Amino acid sequence: MSTISERKKKILAAVVDEYIRTAEPVGSKAIAQSAHLGCSPATIRNELAELVNMGYLEQPHTSAGRVPTPMGYRMYVNELMDRQKLSLEETEDINRRLNQKLQELDDTIDNVSRLASQLTDYPALALTTQSTVTIKRFDIIYVDANTFILVVMLSNNSVRNKLVRLPISVDQNMIRRLSSLFNASFTGITEDQITPLLINSTERAADDSMGLSSVIAAFAIEVLTESSTPSASVSGENRLLGQPEFRDPDKAHRLMSYLSGGGHILPEADSFGGTDEVRVLIGPENVAEELKDSSVVIASYDAGDNTRGLIGVVGPTRMDYSAVAAKLSFLAAGLSRRLGGGEAPPEGMHNKLIIKGDSSDGSR
Amino acid sequence: MSTISERKKKILAAVVDEYIRTAEPVGSKAIAQSAHLGCSPATIRNELAELVNMGYLEQPHTSAGRVPTPMGYRMYVNELMDRQKLSLEETEDINRRLNQKLQELDDTIDNVSRLASQLTDYPALALTTQSTVTIKRFDIIYVDANTFILVVMLSNNSVRNKLVRLPISVDQNMIRRLSSLFNASFTGITEDQITPLLINSTERAADDSMGLSSVIAAFAIEVLTESSTPSASVSGENRLLGQPEFRDPDKAHRLMSYLSGGGHILPEADSFGGTDEVRVLIGPENVAEELKDSSVVIASYDAGDNTRGLIGVVGPTRMDYSAVAAKLSFLAAGLSRRLGGGEAPPEGMHNKLIIKGDSSDGSR
DNA sequence: GTTGGCACTCTCTTCTATCGAGTGCTAATA
DNA sequence: TATTAGCACTCGATAGAAGAGAGTGCCAAC
Asked: N or C: which end of chain A has fewer CB within 10 A?
């Protein structure tokens, strides 16, 4: 009983394809025409009835066509759908946008989410996972007696700065002293290694009676906290309204508010395997209550310095999984290539698309 | 005919207040109760009929209550509504949020728009006007033979940096030379004063045969462009869906897409007078087609260094003008105080609320 | 100038009838 | 045994009709 005939598979695939296209329950007649397996609607009906029994399809009501269940989608995603290759134009388009957006704004996840949303025409969110960041370099630039600039280069090669203005005067020597001291003792350590003790000893060593050390240390802590905290960005929530399943404003509002909330989304973020994997979460497979009748496609990329970036696209369960997965996969690969440390596959190549779902495999 | 009796004003105000509250056409009976001017519904009906004639109100259909026209709202905003003072809790709340959000992320307009949206519960957008920015200081930090960090401090006291990696090696002296040269000849000038000629001469003066000068100059241009280009940020689009007038998903979608588009919004931005002014644009008063049946409340603040920031809140014409104007005004004042250059009114004070509309004054 | 009374209008809701897509079942067929 | 044609049946969707209710406009009285 756990097997499923070839013909049933074809029919199931046809139903899902058609339903994704039209958002209307699919009838036996339509299938007989679209999937040309030489048999009549009546035969299809028998098969459909069995597919309903097996749990792959359901009927909104007795005399309507069939609609895929989450289990049906799961089967579709795992085995049935044709893994779309992007067209040359599409890959070129993505690469062009990537080059354009990333050349200056290195890691800005806002850009990643916006891009993902534009490409797929669904709301998208981007996030970075937790990671341990340390300071690689510490510089202090003397501007004038009351002003200096802190410049910190992090282990992930991003650079942060802060302009500090003082009510009192400091001389250039003090700045130089502090600079080299901080460069010596505050580099290579993580945020929680910056203890009051360490700050104190730096203060004494620099002969700093004005508390500058704590100001600078505070900046260090701030920067480290900020960079190692996962951050999230959501774009294109409004595209939800283009989907017929969100014509109900309340439903749309609920999901959009949830998305705008941002970060605490995707509890599955942590459990994410490796790069080059696209994961599809269908309806009830989602942990978050608000996503129980939506689907999420997630791709992961290497954001450099052991940081993993995640791109997620949210849509109705009737989502164009194939297209979205292909695009996200390509996008993630492009990002890995540009941001990641490791050796990279040559530009413009399709990388293989590995799709993993949850533990259930859609059979029974 | 251009005058309007006191009682009519009271009735008009009552209609608008009630309509803002309930989103339902307002009947004569309701007014007789809410605005207690000792007269019967019948009298009110007569007055209402005249108000309709004058163009301040309209009826959706013969036997419905009255709804304000844009002209009615205009009159309401200009003369009728009580200028709300915020409660102590509200001002404290805003100040607390301001302190929290701005202490580190100086100018991030994302924060401004998010804050405005949270406070008003309408979608909000923040933008900065065009301004001329120059470089105040130029520093180059040597990291290693293939890497250096550019640090630029701008006339608006923001600091930008960029990590540059080279395929070739440079020695520390070269860096030092470039640093002082750029600091000398690239400061105090605007973007379009950075000519190929200037770059060339710098290149020669530094004895730079590797084209480093153009890399650095490119960064200078980039930073100047970016900082002087008006930028925009939109937040809380989804709050639109909470409003009954946007229960139609298509209508909501249209406006949300327009808002997400961002910048080209508010063509009236340029014409904006001074700080401490709140401007209300009602329905057709808006230039943008997409806003013709929505209202916008705009406040302006001093973002320092001759830059003006704008905060706009978008909602249905049936918007709580009074509350929104009060909140925006206070928020703008708080931002001016923190970011602006001039002397500041003491914290926590209500600043006077000046509301200006367009040229028409709602009378005929 | 104000008020009560009353017929009138128009939307909104509810109910009913009809239509049609699509099914499930049965009996005939290859 | 698998497939097919035929047909009665189900059920949502649509349209029209009836009734309720809110609110008006107007008139005559105060």
From this structure: N
A238–B256 C-beta distance less than 8 A: yes
Cβ B64 to strand C below 7 Å: yes
Structure tokens at B242: 């909470």
Dihedral over Cα of A121, A332, A274, A233: its sign: negative
Nearest residue, CA→C1' of C22: A63
- The residue type of B9 is K
Residue B197 parent element (H or E): helix B196-205
A258/A355: higher pLDDT: A258
CA distances from B160 to A131, A160, B66, B220, B227 (A): 24, 8, 56, 10, 10
Spacing of A25 CA from C24 C1' in Å: 17
Stretch (H or E) spanning A243: none
How far apart CA A66 and CA A166 sit, in angstroms, is 71
The single residue listed with the structure tokens 């992961």 is A300
Question: What is the count of residue pairs from A and B with beta carbons less than 8 Å apart?
Answer: 77
Question: In Å, how far is B107's CA from the nearest CA of chain A?
Answer: 13
Q: Give pLDDT tens digits for B217-271.
A: 999 998 998 888 888 889 999 999 999 999 989 999 999 999 988 756 666 665 6
Q: Please give the C-alpha separations between residue B23 and each of B259, B260, B320, in angstroms, as whole numbers.
A: 23, 26, 11
Q: Strand order in A159-165's β-sheet?
A: A135-144, A147-154, A159-165
